[in-house]
Amino acid sequence: MSATIDQVFAKQFESEVHEAYQRQGSKLRPTVRSKNGVRGASTVFPIVGRGTAAAKARNGAVPVMNLSHSHVECFLQDYYAGEWIDRLDELKTNIDERAVVANAGAYALGRKTDELIISAMDAGTREAIGTAAGTTDTDGLTKAKVLLAFEMLGAADVPDDGNRFAIVGWKQWSDLLQIPEFANTQYVGDDELPWKGTQAKRWLGATWMPHSGLTRSGNLRFCYFYHKTAIGHGVAQEVATDITWHGDRAAYFVNNMMSQGAVLVDETGVVRMRAFEA
Q1: What residues contact residue 92 under an 8 Å CB cut-off, 6+ apart?
Q2: Domain limits at 171?
Q3: Are 227 and 214 in contact (CB under 8 A)?
Q4: CATH, residue 197
Q5: Among candidates 83, 24, 36, which has minimal Cα distance to 241?
Q6: Residue among 129, 144, 218 at smallest CA distance from 175
């Protein structure tokens, strides 16, 4: 009987972890180019250069574009988040210990996923004019910086196809809320709020959202305006859970794990906006 109970416990717990990760674990994974089912220690994301159309003489050969082909390699790493669950804890508390640990593990792995994606963005070198390294920047996230980043993406022919995203810190989100074109419903109506119940809205053809994990260097927060295909995210192992019973501790050891990686695919599709944050 106890063996059957353990199996039910393990299956239910793994289901709860997976659901929690999908629900709130990672904010950035849906905003990048993700490849699942990777086999091996790394995977590659291909890059195809621009083609140029040309005229053809009557009865002449059709001109070829001679597209350049290259790729970037994304290395995967293994991550773990473990915890003990005492079998009798639920008898002593008024909380569901299993659910608490499931959420904690899923959120920890979700933050790691976002950390990998943000690190890939940090590898880019394109910055909005006036916010480059070495310049004095005492402004927050201003309308001018946003429009400069917007212009840079347009000048680089980054597709304006609904797959542009912008992530900013919470302080910068407050800065944006002071810009009428961003905050006023006359500019951004209810139909431009893609995810109800959370802080996200569409502006300038992109989905904007705040994030607490963006890199901070001194008093400068690195915010990003980017296209989905500019960042690659590889997954060899989705979030999985292993549960073992330790009789000497009268407790379960719960190990949540995953194998993922992220890489900058095309830096022309990512623009950094540096914002002062005291």
Answers
A1: none
A2: 1-48+70-278
A3: no
A4: 3.90.1690
A5: 83
A6: 144
Enclosing H/E stretch for 42:
strand 42-48
pLDDT-derived band of residue 249, with 50, 70 and 90 as boundaries?
A: confident
The Cα–Cα gap between 168 and 274 comes to: 10
In the structure, how many helices (H) and strands (E) does the chain have?
6, 12
* Contact by Cβ (8 Å): 165, 273: no
Asked, for residue 190, whether it belongs to a domain, the answer is: yes
Q: How far apart, in whole angstroms, are the C-alpha atoms of residue 219 and residue 229?
A: 30
Share of the chain above pLDDT 90, in %: 42
d(CA 35, CA 232): 8
Least confident of 23-37, 88-102, 123-137: 88-102
203 falls within a domain: yes
Q: How many domains does the chain contain in total? A: 1
Give the 3-state secondary structure of residue 212. coil
Residue 55 lies in a domain: no
The answer to whether position 56 is within a domain reads: no
The CA distance from 53 to 107, in Å, is 48
pLDDT at 14: 65
DSSP string across 238-269: EEEEEEEEETTTTEEEEEEEEEEEEEES-GGG
**Residues in CB range of 211: below 8 A, 6 or more apart:** 27, 28, 114, 118, 167, 168, 169
Beta-bridge mates of residue 74? 43
Give pTM, 2 decimals.
Answer: 0.81
- Which residue carries 């994030």 as its tokens? 211
CA–CA distance from 23 to each of 20, 81, 134, 204, 214 (Å)? 5, 18, 40, 27, 20
